[in-house]
Specification:
The complex is a heterodimer of chains A (about 425) and B (about 160). By secondary structure, chain A is of the alpha+beta class. Helices cover about 20% and strands about 25% of the residues of chain A. Chain A is built from 9 helices and 21 strands. In chain A, the strands form 6 sheets. Chain A has a 7-stranded antiparallel β-sheet with strand order 14-20-19-18-17-16-15, sandwiched between helices. A 4-stranded antiparallel β-sheet of chain A has the order 7-6-5-8, with no helix packed on it. In chain A, strands 4-13-12 form a 3-stranded antiparallel β-sheet. Chain B has about 160 residues and is an alpha+beta fold. Chain B has one domain: Nuclear Transport Factor 2, Chain: A. In chain B, strand 5 and strand 6 form a beta hairpin. The chains are: A alpha+beta (about 425), B alpha+beta (about 160). Strand 14 of chain A pairs parallel with strand 7 of chain B.
Chain lengths: ~425, ~160
């Protein structure tokens, strides 16, 4: 057994046997590991997703969000630039922005009314020169040195990312061609935000990172299609990674139904006796020439971009301590959608989100793992489907992308 | 068949509250197979996060526009979906009949759903308001439209049981 990460800060150890991917359960529950993740992943050399450009379309628009557990503000300035700052006053640290969204001319901390422009520069400090000769800031006080903590910001296809580190590779290099192509495929023209859903999951955020890199569970945990006899055994798919193996792209194409169900006779439910009373929930339009009906792009550390049939959404992971995270689903369509197309996206929305007929189980899956391993710190998971190596697969019977996630996780955490 | 236009305000209040009481009882008592029968065939049922309603954004957690979709939700809940076992307890208050227009009764009310898990703990799961449109049918009053706009827009774990 060798100790991982900073041995003085955490006792979690990684199994020596790495013939397949083995992950010590302590990484899901250990507070010291979580604190180190905030420092080295979320505030380290990675780009985190913070929102869609369409959410801050106009000058003065802002959105409060989080990178890991750090509160940040995404805002658009008068020149159209995107800015991300830590939501914490340069004076005594208070939240500068206490609303989720809105439009403002500048930011003002309510505590002592320190005001900042939309780039995060300090504009004004009340009683800076004192009042009637009393008080005031020292002569050495330089407004330029007391702006909000600004992060590096960049965007691809209308998806906005930010990083705390000057050393993080440029966003395009960080994402790599696979993720960029997948983003540009979906974000190929202006989008319209259709709404948000928030799901609070009582489990570690990395269990969801695993879940979204795991095609193995799809037809086994999510039984909606199987139950209603909708499963196409001719469905084909791939599970690929970027060069650094931190991002995962899972795609599938619906084949034609050849009636074969034998491969699933051992699963808990296969009962084609049930028929949907109203199959309109599945009615859709083919809108991508490649015929791909499912895209799950997991971008390290906190983003999932999805296309499931005609539903398009980003899911942002917001960590809430080692034992919980919030998953923010933002569903969108295209600005040029006609009314019928928007109706299709909204109705298919029944499939996704916290009440999604084919996605709700993911919250449950994360929680039962978290609850199962809570004191099993010395045990490790066995991630071996498809060989247990961080390798691409042109099929869906693999856990290769999960192995890739952990490989990169160990690198980025060890520094 | 009731003629809602002819009822006194007091009588209408009684019938509306009786309908809502039956509705939440069938959910809370886990008689979910009866739940779709509280709706007409072309009913609209949506469970909408308040943060979307406040911005006039259309995304709903549950978005049904037929009784058939409601039946499918329950079959899926019973046969397909995986979730932690739980009970609901609905508390309804402030039942306010807002209008009666061409046989359609518009009602706004407040609700709280308490959720109890198998470990015996109860939490406030979902609080919000119902916006109902109710019509009379041969089978009694039914919902033509039921919107549950929920303040608790951060859903705990998942939502499988209707509100």
């Amino acid at each position: 057994m060798n100790t991982i990460f900073a041995s003085d800060r955490t006792a979690v150890t990684w199994p020596e046997d790495q013939s397949v991917c083995r992950v010590p359960y302590g990484v899901f529950t250990d507070r010291a590991v979580y604190d180190l993740e905030q420092e080295r992943i979320f505030r380290g050399e990675n780009w985190s997703f913070v929102g869609l450009e369409a959410e801050v379309a106009n000058a003065g628009d802002f959105k409060s969000t989080y990178i890991g557990e750090t509160p940040v503000i995404l805002m658009r300035d008068e020149e159209g630039g995107l800015n991300v700052v830590v939501n914490s006053c340069a004076h005594r640290g208070a939240l500068v922005c206490r609303e989720q969204r809105g439009n403002v001319a500048n930011l003002e901390c309510v505590y002592h009314q320190w005001a900042y422009n939309l780039k995060g520069d300090l504009l004004g400090v009340p009683f800076r020169r004192g009042l009637a000769g009393n008080g005031g800031m020292p002569k050495s006080f330089d407004m330029k040195e007391h702006g909000l903590h600004k992060l590096r910001v960049d965007a691809v296809g209308g998806l906005v990312f930010a990083t705390f580190s000057e050393r993080t590779a440029p966003l395009l290099d960080y994402l790599g061609p696979m993720a960029i192509d997948a983003i540009n495929r979906i974000c190929n023209r202006p989008i319209t935000v259709l709404g948000d859903q928030r799901q609070y999951v009582r489990g570690n955020w990395k269990l969801y990172a695993e879940n979204t890199r795991d095609p193995y569970h799809a037809s086994l945990l999510h039984l909606f299609h199987t139950t209603f006899g909708l499963y196409r055994s001719s469905q084909t798919g791939v599970c690929h990674m970027d060069a650094a193996r931190r991002h995962s792209l899972l795609t599938a194409s619906q084949g034609t139904d050849d009636g074969k169900t034998g491969d699933y006779k051992d699963t808990r439910t296969f009962n084609a006796d049930f028929k949907l009373q109203d199959p309109s929930v599945l009615a859709g339009r083919k809108e991508f020439a490649d015929g791909v009906t499912l895209v799950i792009l997991a971008v390290f550390p906190n983003l999932v971009l999805q296309q499931i049939a005609n539903t398009l959404a980003v899911r942002q992971i917001v960590t809430k301590g080692p034992g919980a995270f919030e998953l923010v689903w933002t569903q969108f369509g295209y600005a040029d959608d006609d009314a019928q197309m928007q109706g299709i996206r909204l109705k298919q929305g029944n499939l996704i989100g916290p009440a999604g007929l084919i996605s709700m189980e993911d919250g449950e899956a994360v929680e039962i793992v978290h609850n199962g391993v809570i004191r099993e710190q010395d045990r490790a998971s066995y991630i071996g489907m498809g060989g247990g190596k961080a390798e691409d697969a042109d099929h869906l019977v693999t856990e290769g992308s999960i192995a890739g996630f952990w490989e990169y996780y160990r690198q980025t955490m060890t520094v | 068949m009731l003629n809602v236009e002819k009822l006194s305000a007091l009588e209408l209040q009684y019938h509306v509250e009786k309908l809502q009481a039956g509705y939440v009882e069938c959910i809370d008592d886990n008689r979910l197979e009866e739940w779709p029968d509280y709706f007409v065939d072309d009913a609209v049922y949506k469970v909408i996060p308040r943060e979307n309603a406040d911005r006039n954004l259309p995304v709903a957690a549950i978005f049904c526009d037929s009784k058939g979709m409601l039946v499918d939700r329950i079959v899926s809940l019973r046969k397909a979906n995986i979730y932690a076992a739980h009970f609901y307890r609905h508390i309804i208050s402030n039942v306010n009949v807002k209008a009666v227009d061409r046989g359609v009764v518009s009602v706004q009310s407040n609700y709280v759903v308490l959720q109890t898990r198998t470990d015996g703990t109860t939490e406030i799961y979902n609080a919000g308001k119902y916006l109902d449109k109710i019509v009379a049918t041969e089978g009694g009053l039914k919902f033509k439209e039921k919107l549950a706009i929920f303040d608790t827009y951060q859903i705990q774990s998942l939502m499988v049981t209707p509100i």
